[in-house]
Amino acid sequence: MSAVSLADIQAARDRIAPMARVTPMLDVSAIAGRPLFLKCESQQPGGAFKIRGAYNMIAQLPSAARAHGVITYSSGNHGQAVAISARALGMASVVVMPTTAPAIKVDGAKGFGAEVVFAGTTTLHRKAKAEEIAAERGLTMIPPFDDPQIIAGQGTLGLEILEQCPSAATILVPIGGGGLISGVAAAVKQARPEVTVVGVEPAGAASMKASVEAGEVRTLDTVQSIADGLLAVRPGELNFAHVRTFVDRLMTVEEDEIAAALRWLFRDVKIVAEPSGAVTVAAALRADAAFAAPVVAVISGGNLDPGVASKYLS
User: Fold this and answer.
1) What pLDDT score was predicted for residue 289?
2) 300 is catalytic
3) What pLDDT, on the 0 to 100 scale, is given for residue 157?
4) How many domains, in total, are found in the chain?
């Protein structure tokens, strides 16, 4: 594996500056009863961290590719980020989404100018459909996680965390396909190797944990969780390699823990997070959590479906 370098991530940071925000870091230690900071990527354009990787890749496309447009496959947040980035750079975009995608994410992608196509329920279904459309129309694929430019863009989050919380000892990062954890871990470990990086997955969709335990990328037969943005049945090959190189530990959280974290964020901290963005807080709030402190938990997104909100926040 050729790992994404610190120089790649620093260059991406300059590149995405016109679009991506430096999001807030909140000290919630007094509320949590332990040293805990929240990195609020829910405040990004599109409501999630995905703008970092999407804009980094799309901004580097040559003029010929820009003229044809871009396509991606996404459960929602990456699709919105591609749509926002493409519109900002004067390009057309197509997003292939699962038939089960939350309406808030579908409407978001459409609202940002994307053509939305539905295909199946898994990453593999929508990837196949996106590849088919890309070949037919001559569109450039913007993958959601398994690409060095995407990883470098997501890695800019790691640089921000280290600057905003210099005392950070542990950083908790959600894992779906592995793009965010790859970038954050690459940035953190190449800049501050003593900081512990922990990846968090829903117990019902722990494809990265299964792959690391097997020593090779594995595809899960089924995935199920309220964390709809973390339902990759198979992690990316490049992401798997980065995790094995840079990540200290993987862990899973249960559905009731994710729901409790959503409620805690909403009621006590006054933050709206989507379930995928709350898995790190679920891990941080465990009574038996044994992380070196202070802990930084990445809130990766805030696109909370109204149906989920009414069920779990009431």
Assistant:
1) 87
2) yes
3) 98
4) 2
Read off the amino acid at residue 234: R
Q: Check whether residue 293 and residue 190 sit in a common domain.
A: yes
Q: Is the dihedral of CA 8, 14, 20, 26 positive or negative?
A: positive
Question: Following DSSP, what letter does each residue of 19-65 receive, concatenated?
Answer: T-----EEE-HHHHTS-EEEEEGGGSGGGBTTHHHHHHHHTT--HHH
**pTM of the predicted model, to two decimals?**
0.94
The model's pLDDT over 75-113, given as tens digits with 9 standing for 90+, comes to 889 999 999 999 999 999 999 999 988 888 899 999 999
Domain extent for 71: 51-141
Nearest to 285 by CA among 24, 42, 35, 23: 35
Instruction: Look up tokens 């003229």; give the residue.
Output: 67
Are 294 and 173 within one domain? yes
50, 105, 189, 209: the catalytic one is: 50
> How much of the chain, in percent, has pLDDT values that exceed 70?
100
| Cis? peptide before 45, omega within 30° of 0 | no
Q: Round to the nearest angstrom and report the end-to-end CA distance of the chain.
A: 47
The mean pLDDT of 123-144, rounded to a whole number, is 94
Q: Are 155 and 183 in contact (CB under 8 A)?
A: yes
Tell whether 288 and 188 lie within a shared domain: yes
| Residue partners of 189: CB distance under 8 A and separation at least 6 | 195, 197, 245, 246
Q: In the chain, what is the greatest distance between 2 CA atoms, to the nearest angstrom?
A: 55
